[in-house]
């Protein structure tokens, strides 16, 4: 079976290949280390206390309250927990709810390539038409002119992933100003997928779109507890938006999902006020630097990363293979699974980068390094 005829997402395909070949899996974006036992205790306690029935549709009030407080403290933004925050089964479902609530047949949606793989199929399922803007190939920065050209009267939504998967780039202030200028010209919404908000390596930390008051009226913010607390299997996230945008979103959401796992919401509500986000960012920065040191012994060349738990490596000094073949070959022959990034483009590019997930235990990263050195 090859990726092309597998009918699987690249993540499912590479993880399956890693499993069947016994390779180290640095492909799919999930950590292999345990979550904080205090978080587990909170969830178990909630189950034992009998919180096992449906939660309110938009999410547990206690959880929405702590999230409103946290965003006010971290980014200086005010969201009403009653009407402007909705808990969802993972960021993926939040993204789908945003798209389903704003995109209608024939609407244009701007996506930056490479793009996280659920965006385009969801836009198309809502009848939208994707307008692709390729990030600048040399450093994956945002091309302002190409973005201006892509935005027009039919533009309904722009989806921005920040920090970016797979590139590890972070939006600059100049990008945000440019986006806002375009909004003066055309009337669109913005979906800011900020699932890696707490994994940002910039000295000043992460600047959420929520911190820009002028973007507020047209922006949806999307988050994932799975990414932040290394509990991807829990699939719990949330979306924040002004009440005028949240109302239609909830109309869709109440029938598509209705409500999210109650004891997990109780556990999170108890845990979040005491969560050590600085420690999370430091842990990932240490891992990123450790992995960079290991990889320095190989012929793979790193691209800069400023956020997320991914690092792109240029393998052009190692092989002539295209990136999908290279990822398959590395998995089968060297025992290390990665993600080729051409699959995140609408048409396959000749691009010699692979994405490595470094959210793994140090001994796993070290063993991967040894295999790649060969
Ligand atoms: C950019 C981005 N958005 C959304 C998601 C999905 O998050 P969740 O697992 O909470 O649905 C991921 C997961 O890898 C991601 O990388």
Mean pLDDT over the residues: 96
Order of helices and strands: HEHHEHEHEHEHEEHEHHHEEHEEEH
Q: Could you name the CATH homologous superfamily of the largest domain?
A: Type I PLP-dependent aspartate aminotransferase-like (Major domain)
Poorly predicted sequence stretches spanning 5 or more consecutive residues: none
What proportion of the residues form beta strands (DSSP E)?
5-15%
Within the CATH hierarchy, at the fold level, what is the topology of the largest domain? Aspartate Aminotransferase, domain 2
Adjacency order of strands in the biggest sheet: 2-8-7-6-5-3-4
User: Could you say which overall geometry the principal axes of the C-alpha atoms support?
Assistant: globular
Task: Count the beta strands.
Answer: 13
The proportion of residues forming helix, as a percent range, comes to: 40-55%
| Structural class by SSE content | alpha/beta
Query: How many domains make up the 3D coordinates?
Result: 2
Distance between the termini: 26 Å
Bound molecules: pyridoxal-5'-phosphate
For the sheet with most strands, the description reads: 7 strands, mixed
Secondary-structure arrangement, i.e. CATH architecture of the largest domain: 3-Layer(aba) Sandwich
Tally of helical runs: 13
CATH C-level label of the largest domain: Alpha Beta
From the alpha-carbon coordinates, what is the Rg to the nearest angstrom? Answer: 20 Å
């Amino acid at each position: 079976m090859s990726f092309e005829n597998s009918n699987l997402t690249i993540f499912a395909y590479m993880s399956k290949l890693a499993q069947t070949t016994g390779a180290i899996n640095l492909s799919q974006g999930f950590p292999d280390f345990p979550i904080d036992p205090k978080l587990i205790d909170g969830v178990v306690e909630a189950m034992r206390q009998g919180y096992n029935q449906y939660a309110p549709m938009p999410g547990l009030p206690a959880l929405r309250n702590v999230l409103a407080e946290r965003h006010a403290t971290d980014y200086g933004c005010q969201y009403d927990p009653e009407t402007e925050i909705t808990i969802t089964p993972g960021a993926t479902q939040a993204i789908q709810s945003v798209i389903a609530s704003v995109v209608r047949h024939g609407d244009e949606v701007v996506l930056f390539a490479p793009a996280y793989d659920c965006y385009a199929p969801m836009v198309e399922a809502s009848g939208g038409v994707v307008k692709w803007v390729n990030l600048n190939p040399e450093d994956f920065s945002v091309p302002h002119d190409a973005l201006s050209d892509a935005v027009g009267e039919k533009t309904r939504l722009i989806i921005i992933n920040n920090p970016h998967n797979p590139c590890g780039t972070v939006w600059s202030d100049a990008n945000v100003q440019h986006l806002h200028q375009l909004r003066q010209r055309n009337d669109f919404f913005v979906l800011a997928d900020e699932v890696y908000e707490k994994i940002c390596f910039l000295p000043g930390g992460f600047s959420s779109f929520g911190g820009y008051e002028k973007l507020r009226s047209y922006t949806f913010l999307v988050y994932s507890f799975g990414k932040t607390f290394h509990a991807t299997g829990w699939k719990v996230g949330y979306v924040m938006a002004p009440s005028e945008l949240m109302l239609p979103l909830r109309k869709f959401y109440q029938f598509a999902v209705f409500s999210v796992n109650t004891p997990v919401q109780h556990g999170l509500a108890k845990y979040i006020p005491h969560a050590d986000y600085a420690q999370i960012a430091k842990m990932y920065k240490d891992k990123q630097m450790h992995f960079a040191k290991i990889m320095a012994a190989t012929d793979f060349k790193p691209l800069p990363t400023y956020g997320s738990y991914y690092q792109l490596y240029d393998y052009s000094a190692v092989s002539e293979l295209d990136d999908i073949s290279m990822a398959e070959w590395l998995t089968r022959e060297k025992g290390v699974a990665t993600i080729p990034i051409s699959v995140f483009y609408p048409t396959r590019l000749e691009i010699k980068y692979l994405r490595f997930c470094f959210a793994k235990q140090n001994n796993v990263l070290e063993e991967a390094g040894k295999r790649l050195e060969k």
